[in-house]
Amino acid sequence: MDASGRSLRSYRYVGPRDLKAAVGPGDAGTVVRTAAEFAYWAATRTREELAEPFTFVVGLDGALRLAPRRSEHVACAGGEPVLSAGEIRFGEEAGRWAVREVSNQSTGYCPDTDSWPAVAEALDRAGVDRPGSFTHEVVFRRCRGCGQHNIVREDHFVCVFCDADLPWRWNIDP
Questions:
Q1: pLDDT at 166 over 90
Q2: In sequence order, what are the residues at sequence separation of 6 or more whose Cβ sits closer than 8 angstroms to the Cβ of residue 118?
């Protein structure tokens, strides 16, 4: 449940099995639950690291987990289901940390755009200023014809693999 009492959907990993099988103990991203934890995490990053986006997930416990950008989301999540996943970039403004960009782009979990409330709550708990929604929304759909996962671009709900129509509603994890 989120702060308003809405039930939050969880997302299982739907990407390549070998990537999940490679996740080992201690592979999970850095857990950031509070403003103090975020401040410590940010202070231990280089300027070069902070200039790039990071891989993130929001675990079922509502905690934000962060890993370097080229990390697999399933590794960041320790192989577990998530409430959201994507990429995020931070910046510092007047001594406060803020989200500059955030997306739900994770081809391993393919979270729907309605996973934003979980991200917003995790960032609020971590004391990070944030936008009102994803700054870049990715629409994922599974083709009912060939079973392939698709990213829908420009509201063109057609499978790039077999030209079948894609459903309007999220359907990645049957």
A1: yes
A2: 2, 8, 58, 62, 83, 84
